[in-house]
Predict the 3D structure of the following.
Amino acid sequence: MAITVDRNDPRFNMLKQSRNLRWPAHEADAVEEIELCETSEQAAEALQRIIHAGVRPTIRSGGHCYEDFVVNNPNGSILDLSLLTTTAMAGDGNRHRISPGQQLGDVYLELYKRHGVTIPAGNCYSVGAGGHISGGGYGLLSRLHGLTIDWLSQVEILTVDSKGHVELHRVDKDHDADLFRACRGAGGGNFGVVTGFLFDRLPAAPYEVANVQLSFDWATMSEDTFTAILSTFGDYFAHRGHDPETWGLFAILDLTHASSGRFGISVQFCNPNGRCDDLKVVEEFLDLFHEFEPDPTKAPSSGERRLSQQGASNRERVGRHTVDKRLWLDATIGGSGGGHSVRAKYKSSYMRETFSPAESKCIYKHLTRALPNVDLRGMVLSVDSYGGAANAKGMAEATSSWQRSSIMKTQFQHYWVNPAEDDARLQWTREFFSDLYSQHGEPRYAGTPYPSERYEGCYINYPDSDMLAYDFWPQLYYGDKGLYPFLQKVKQRYDPNNIFHHAMSIRA
Amino acid sequence: MHSDHRLLNRLSRRAFLRSTVSVAALGQLRSVAGSTILLKRNAFAYVACGQTMGGGDGSLQVFSLHGGHWTAIQQVPTRAPACVVLSPDQQTLYVANEVGTHDGLPRGTVDAFRIDPSDSRLRLLGRQALSLAATYPRQMALSPDGRLLAVAADGGAIYNLLPVSTDGSLDRPCGIFKQLGCGLRTRLRTDAHPHRLLFDSTGKHLLSSGFGSGDMSTFVVAQSAVSRRMQQRTVEIDHFGVCALHPDGSIFYALHKAGGSLSCSRYDSASGTVGETIERISMPTYGSDFALEALAIHPSGRMLYTAETTHSRLQAWHIHPQDGHLSQAKHIELNGASGNEMVVASNGESLFILDRLRGLIHRIAVDNATGEPGFVGEAAMIPGAQSMVFKTL
């Protein structure tokens, strides 16, 4: 039996909430109970009980959902899979199993220690595998190895048929292939409860990586220099970044608010063979920014996803730069805990081209715009390098992660503590995003990165309920080339009663 | 002399009548079909008009009914109104908006309107969103004390309980229940579609007939939460459609749309249980699963009415006072109109029949003591009419 935590249980107040402390938005929105499941059998039994009771289930693995999809569930039940961490089952054969409750850091440890392999997933230790992989799963190795779902071979998923019976499916490219594709990137909470991800093979974990951080001083930052830095970053991935030789380089441009003092770039690199024997790609990349006089000794502020600076490292000169070489596992799990729970708002976009001058100026304008009586140091626009193996041909059709021609991926992150600042901070973030994505494109899509020659919409694992204001929000997350209608058909077939739903789930 | 005696009896029972309705009203009596019926007393009709094939403009329309005439006194634009319910004190009107999206989220809404006591016009109190995925609400029921509004959303097959504040406005849903289809009659629907909703006389149980789920459920309402007490789900039950409880709360009547029958069952309001079937009467459906549409019971508990769409005919049934058995009383031709919905005015003097396709509302005069239907009275043409309630004075 699952562990039931109801409102009388001392654990309830902790477990009812999200890591994003904005949710549940009101006490009345909180669930009635949480069902903690340690096995897939327990998950099936608890789900069946929930369905029979006429209650809405929402699914949680790591609890990192950015929006209210899980914990805003009045009268409902959270099916919490954080204890479902099985790493091997009879019948798995030589396959690698990842369970939804496993945290990414534990997945890295497990796969590395047992098999010397890894998944190209995120760099926050405590993110749960269930939601992360369901939405695509990308991270520092994605330019080198693609998305996590690109390696996925089979998914075990509980669905609920038209009569309310819970069924276990093992789906792959030959069995329920439509559901399998939907499970590869459409996002969690849409079709059922994933109880296991299986991989026939996975890439070898790198032996070591090189880390570098550069930062720039806001105090002396002109609009022209800022624009030039952004263009330099974007131009690299728009051109040089297509060369497979560079795919081991993953860079994050963390654009913080001017009040934070500094913004900067974090780099992780390894050669395609997983070693750091030849660092000329890094040197070449860093040289591009030399004219902007970066300071490699002062770390920029950043969001939850800053690269680890902890653990033993070997400092090495590369031309006029110094890099820290670390063993990959140390670099990947050291200090990347994901931070503590705060209030937060997120937005995202995929960029197919480098920054235009208009975009850079718009970003500069907002990052230097003050908000009366509000400390904006908790705001960062992270611009991740993208492309490389993540843009592998054929994967758009084989998976539900359709954005396969972007060179950068942005994540607007805004963190704060005081609930009284909610409205002002949310408004500030909305205005920033809307203004930035009104610089180009068709007027009817103004305010959004609607799929075009410049943009590829938004990332479903960085959901933003503000996009619901647009009737074309599904096209922002699933494109306008037929993926969304396909997912709707899968939804109708495998979840005919729309049991699994949230604010941005696939509409039945 | 006989008529006067009956009138006095009626007046003595009509505790709800305001004292101001006295001599002036009595002066407007006229005799129809051997019965003395008040025809000219004021009433107000609140009609939900949706955007349908029959026309309509998505509004609430308010009419004053006087002397056989319907006079439009107000039109309130609102989103796809599908069902209207009047509070027991006749001071608040609730309107289900049959929409699939509200504020970008998949959910329907319910509007609450204050009825101005001076002129019976509507003033919006507020709009309450339903729970996520509770889309296209079509049915509502108010608890007898008027403190809880139950809403059935057709789109998500989800029931919501909304607390009613002291001013009549609605709070956010406090009880939510999701119903599933059983797939018994796959040629119809396999997913659940709540069809009719009603509270029993205790207010502790909510009864729902479903279409597609092929079932009839009773729910326990306790501490503003809702849980299912029982679910009847057999092929024989064959799709409960429209249903009603006898005013004394002990008999449950239902029209079975697909099978074409009218059933009468015992109902235990203490436990919220529909018991044994007392009687089942076959009714012709003329080949249409959707022929049996409307059922209503007179407040006296002495007469039951059914209407169907293929034959434009109203059938009245005597209700046996001891055991609830039905026997045919009379039928009335509706001049080509269908009966999709029937409402008996709370004063028991009129039966209103709605033909949604044509946007026609017929009024049949009814003996308020016996429920005996009289003549087919005036008709109002209201394109797009979906649902109606009547405030009586």
The radius of gyration of chain B is 20 Å. DSSP finds two helices and 30 strands in chain B.
